[in-house]
Predict the structure of Pentatricopeptide repeat-containing protein.
Amino acid sequence: MTCGLDTHLFVGTTMISMYAECGFVEFAWKVFVEIPQPNVVARNLILIGYSIFSRE
């Protein structure tokens, strides 16, 4: 079994979602910038995280 970029993208988006939901947007951003080619899901998750928790 190989772990390629698809696995990295899946794990990355899951981590972004987890961090963003917990209010750790700075950690979500660190994961986001490590994804070689973020997809629409990753971009939306980071935007949602910033829109919810940037007011605090």
